[in-house]
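Per your request, structure below.
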């Protein structure tokens, strides 16, 4: 743009040229520039006419698929652009720009520059990029004193950007090595093989070697060995070997290996992090390689970035191993053996995203031969979530073992979590199973519903009434947890899981649950025979597409096909204080039940012991007593009587004095019952006894 003539106002009386001012299309075309529009959701990249001309393509040759531009953009340039664009999308930037080379139809290479503006929705998700592309060959071919970009410096900067971008999201040592291999940044410098060694306990262990395998004797070496990696670690000084002669003289021990891979020059540089050597890297080259000062500076800068990434990865792995070990220590190490039920559990830590989570499982033995299964997920993915998980699991186990009902266990756990004042909540699924009857009582606190697999292989979600997550229900004063009951048939399997097992990016949670049900449905043949371990392994196998961004817990409860159903239903009779008719009804109930269940020869014993236990409960507690009688499964007829009250004090068997008028009740129970005992039941207790149908009193003896 030039200045106006003296005294002439802008525009003056001169007529403007035709088509003035030029429209955008004219300006872009005259400057060898085109426009493009990339729909990220559909994966369609539109190129206008000038852009197609720049790529030396016709409209008939290009169908909108960005992958089809690979015939024009070299693979190395494509990889670099992919990394830079992905980094821009993840970082939240609004625009980006990049120089790259493209190959014309005649095979000639031209420099090109592109710039894109990223469009995002209200949630920050990128859905579209609108940009321009222009020919930059003339710009980059100007004499050094007139150009704004030095081509060689641009190439070197591109290598640094490419490698740095590839390392930015590598979290483990293995991911760092893969990123170096995938980025191909070092290959652009002419290296044919890259060797990485890390310092471990005064030795150097090779952890990566692209191109070929090292001989076993070079995998683990001492720092004082006369080897190039050891030397640069000792001296913290790079070593550059420019020729095969130089190599053979300075490092005769490794020269045979170097020669076998076709290399004759090398650069060995220390990996330094926090002013200490953590390892070394070696780059092997074909032919004589002089290593200019600029290239040596570039390699030093690159190895500094690589060292920081490896150090960060090693710290992450150490912290992850420690956190995972602590979390595993807070999970149960063994499962109770419950006749009639098979259980299998799994926990899998996350391999992407945060390093630890709050998922847990538990299988808890309960009074009366029952068992409780639990899966849950504490909000958050950090060590605090894991700590809360450990406390919550212990509290749930304690409340359940005390004999509280399923709803009470969940309500008390919610109150406990709220009292911790951590600001966290937890979802949880609690299932109480009676293997004798097959009955399940399920409570769901904001958690995913379980799956039920039938013996014929069919699988479907089993609807369970839900309530607020633990912690939130107490905070809002809504501690009522509805209980869903079901009878699990022999051969059926209950599948309880956390969301980490069904979540995948870009898919709906319901789709993940349906996919899990499909995997259960097509389980191996051994699952039909009750092999829960095989089913658990199958369900927890990682997807190759998505190795798991969240931790997960899984519990399988299988009622064995050989399980014998309870031969009769439970009978209950509540006896109030001062209610002789209620006590008489309880005696009549247990006598009739014993006769109906082929234990008639013991009917007198059953009635007498029931009367004694119920009377003691009414005399020594403030509330009512509940008498329960039911038959036990087995080859021989057997009856169990339970008397439950609201006192937590356990009765003690002792010998009364000869002159004492009381204290002989438990002696009578001990003499008449085959076996008896006491169990905690919530805030109260249950005194139980069993009678066989074979006649005669048992040996007695407290069993609890």
């Amino acid at each position: 743009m030039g200045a106006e003539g003296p005294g002439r106002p802008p525009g003056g009386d001169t007529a403007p040229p035709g088509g003035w001012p030029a429209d955008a299309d004219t300006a872009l075309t005259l400057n060898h520039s085109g426009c493009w529009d990339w729909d990220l959701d559909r994966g369609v990249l539109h190129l206008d006419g000038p852009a197609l001309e720049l790529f030396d393509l016709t409209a008939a040759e290009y169908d909108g698929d960005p992958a089809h531009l690979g015939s024009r953009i070299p693979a190395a340039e494509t990889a670099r652009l992919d990394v830079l664009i992905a980094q821009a999308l993840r970082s939240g930037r609004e625009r980006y720009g990049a120089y790259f080379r493209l190959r014309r139809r005649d095979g000639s290479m031209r420099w090109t520059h592109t710039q894109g503006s990223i469009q995002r929705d209200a949630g920050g998700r990128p859905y579209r990029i609108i940009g321009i592309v222009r020919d930059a060959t003339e710009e980059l071919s100007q004499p050094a004193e007139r150009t704004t970009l030095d081509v060689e410096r641009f190439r070197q900067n591109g290598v640094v950007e490419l490698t740095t971008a590839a390392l930015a999201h590598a979290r483990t040592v293995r991911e760092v090595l893969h990123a170096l291999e995938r980025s191909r940044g070092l290959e652009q410098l002419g290296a044919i093989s890259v060797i990485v060694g890390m310092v471990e306990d005064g030795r150097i262990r090779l952890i990566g070697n692209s191109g070929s395998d090292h001989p076993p004797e070079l995998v683990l070496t001492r720092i004082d060995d006369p080897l190039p990696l050891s030397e640069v670690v000792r001296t913290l000084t790079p070593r550059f070997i420019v020729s095969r002669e130089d190599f053979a003289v300075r490092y005769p021990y490794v020269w045979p290996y170097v020669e076998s891979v076709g290399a004759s020059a090398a650069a060995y540089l220390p990996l330094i992090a926090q002013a200490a050597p953590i390892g070394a890297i070696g780059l092997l080259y074909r032919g004589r390689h002089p290593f200019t000062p600029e290239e040596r500076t570039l390699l030093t800068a690159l190895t500094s970035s690589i060292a920081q990434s490896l150090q960060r990865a090693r710290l992450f792995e150490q912290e992850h191993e420690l956190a995972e070990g602590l979390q595993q220590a807070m999970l149960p190490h063994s499962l109770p053996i419950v006749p009639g039920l098979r259980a299998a559990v799994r926990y899998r830590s996350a391999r992407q995203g945060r390093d630890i989570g709050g998922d847990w499982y538990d299988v808890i033995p309960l009074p009366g031969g029952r068992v409780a299964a639990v899966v849950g997920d504490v909000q958050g993915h950090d060590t605090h979530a894991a700590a809360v998980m450990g406390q919550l699991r212990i509290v749930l186990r304690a409340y359940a073992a005390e004999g509280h009902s399923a709803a009470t266990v969940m309500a008390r756990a919610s109150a406990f979590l709220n009292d911790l004042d951590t600001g966290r909540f937890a979802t949880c699924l609690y299932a109480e199973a009676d293997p004798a009857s097959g009955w399940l009582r399920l409570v769901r606190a904001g958690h995913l519903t379980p799956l039920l697999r039938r013996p014929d292989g069919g699988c479907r979600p089993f609807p369970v009434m839900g309530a607020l997550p633990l912690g939130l229900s107490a905070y809002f004063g809504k501690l009522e947890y509805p209980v869903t009951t079901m009878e699990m048939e022999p051969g059926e399997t209950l599948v309880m899981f956390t969301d980490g097992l069904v979540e995948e990016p870009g898919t709906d949670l319901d789709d993940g649950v349906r996919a899990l049900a499909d995997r259960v449905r097509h389980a191996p043949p051994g699952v039909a025979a009750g092999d829960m371990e095989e089913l658990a392994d199958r369900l927890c196998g990682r997807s190759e597409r998505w190795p798991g961004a969240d931790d997960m817990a899984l519990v399988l409860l299988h009622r064995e096909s050989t399980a014998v159903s309870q031969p009769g239903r439970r009978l209950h009779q509540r006896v109030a204080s001062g209610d002789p008719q209620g006590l008489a009804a309880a005696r009549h109930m247990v006598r009739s039940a014993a006769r109906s269940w082929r234990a008639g020869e013991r009917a007198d014993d059953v009635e007498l012991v029931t009367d004694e236990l119920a009377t003691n409960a009414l005399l020594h507690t403030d509330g009512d007593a509940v008498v329960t009688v039911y038959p036990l499964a087995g080859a021989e007829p057997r009856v169990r009587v339970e008397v439950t009250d609201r006192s937590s004090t356990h009765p003690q068997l002792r010998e009364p004095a000869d002159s004492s008028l009381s204290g002989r009740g438990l002696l009578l129970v001990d003499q008449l019952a085959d076996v008896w005992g006491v169990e905690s039941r919530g805030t109260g207790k249950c005194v139980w006894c069993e009678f066989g149908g074979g006649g005669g009193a048992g040996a007695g003896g407290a069993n609890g």
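The longest strand covers residues 109-120.

Regards,
D.
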